[in-house]
Design a protein that fits this description.
15 helices, 394 residues, Aspartate Aminotransferase, domain 2, seven-stranded mixed sheet, 2 domains, globular, single chain
């Protein structure tokens, strides 16, 4: 079959199955999105603290003498060539102040970080055991690695232990999990997994993309909230969610960081982030750590602790109104079929809400859903109205 004919038939098949995607141009207006002349309350963003619509969006970035006259909007080389600007060092130093027991390595995005970690760290004689519902970037990491891999049932510590017992002969075993899972919003049984780690001596990698900025002291994530960050060998955090920036950070020992610099292909072969992005990330991380702007200009900037508390209050109120026990800001409205998920999204649009239908392969077949993302920018009235809509959607 001719290539173009095959592609056309595959697109037609996706459309018949209610699985065809298309890009739509949108503009952000605080807690709202504007698309094709209409305005929608945004319930699909990962900007969990609402920073893009907050006073921080126009806050002065932390500056230093090295940035004077510097071209801040590009960094046209990899970090190992000429792209390792001083802003990387400043951001990584800020991360080291937030996580004093770890060394920080900043990359272009979470997908790059996740997809590059296991190919760099796990060899062909090792074994990787990952949660069944790990993000697609982590699944790609397994496929790219030379190490064999297995997947344990989602959040099933007993199944994980059985796999560890079956493969006790492996020299090095990596267990890969998320702290908050991106499609179900549930939390990993981190304490139980760390207890297994103490007994079976494996290496643990935790993706904290959806908990960083929200949970734990200074928003450091679930591992810190449980007092277990020192038990984790590799932490992966992103700046494109609660931080409302771009990029990602791997936190590990100095030895592992030096090794990743030499072996992590997405770092070695990708163009560096622009300084302006690194400066924004650093400003937000500094504020998370010190709340300096909020303290010196309290009438202008909210405290990060208050934003986290506001998000928690929104989750609690929505849970109460819906009669559920949401574990996080990510709340799935299950639809089952693709058609039903698309119908629910359209009903949301008609009511002024930007809802996204999540379908396979992002979620398993028959598990299509609306993925609600609550954030700190929502008012109590908006939460009440949203709950009323969700009840109508079923």
């Amino acid at each position: 079959m001719d290539l173009m004919q095959r592609i056309a038939e595959e697109l037609a098949s996706l459309e018949r199955a209610g699985n065809l995607r298309a890009l739509r141009e949108v503009s952000c207006e605080g807690a709202y999105l504007r698309c094709e002349g209409s305005r929608y309350l945004n319930l699909s963003s990962n900007d969990y603290l609402g920073l893009s619509g907050s006073p921080f969006a126009s806050a002065p970035l932390i500056s230093d003498s090295t940035s004077e006259g510097e071209f801040l909007h590009g960094n046209p080389s990899s970090r190992l060539m000429t792209g390792n600007s001083v802003h990387y060092q400043l951001l990584e130093e800020e991360m080291a102040l937030l996580f004093p027991a770890k060394s920080a390595l900043v990359l272009g995005c979470g997908y790059m970080a996740n997809s590059g970690l296991m190919p760099a760290l796990a060899g062909r004689d090792d074994l990787i055991i990952a949660d069944k519902l790990m993000h697609a970037s982590a699944i790609d990491s397994l496929r790219l690695s030379e190490a064999p891999f297995m997947r344990f049932h989602h959040n099933d510590v007993a199944h994980l232990e059985r796999l560890l017992l079956q493969h006790a002969d492996k020299k090095n075993v990596w267990v890969v999990i998320e702290s908050i899972y991106s499609m179900d919003g549930d939390l990993a049984p981190l304490a139980a997994i760390v207890e297994l780690k103490r007994r079976y001596c494996f290496y643990l990698m935790v993706d904290e993309a959806h908990s960083f900025g929200l949970l734990g002291p200074q928003g450091k994530g679930l591992c810190a909230q449980l007092g277990l960050e020192d038990e984790v060998d590799v932490l992966m955090l992103t700046y494109g969610k609660a931080v409302a920036g771009a990029g990602a950070c791997v936190l590990c020992s100095p030895l592992l960081r030096a090794y990743l610099v030499n072996k992590m292909r997405p770092l070695i072969f990708s163009t560096a982030l622009p300084p302006i992005t690194l400066m924004w990330n650093r400003m937000v991380i500094h504020e998370m750590r010190t709340e300096q702007l909020a303290e010196t200009e309290p009438d202008c900037y909210p405290r990060m602790t208050d934003l986290r508390a506001r998000l928690e209050a929104n989750i609690s109120l929505f849970s109460q109104l819906m009669g559920i026990e949401a574990q996080s800001q990510i709340i799935p409205l299950m639809a089952g079929s693709n058609e039903r998920a698309l119908c629910m999204a359209r009903e949301g649009f008609d009511s002024g809400y930007w809802l996204t239908a999540v379908r396979p392969p992002t979620v398993p077949a028959g598990a299509a859903r609306i993925r609600l993302s609550l954030h700190a920018g929502l008012t109590e009235e908006q939460i009440i109205e949203l709950a009323d809509l969700c009840k109508k959607l079923g």
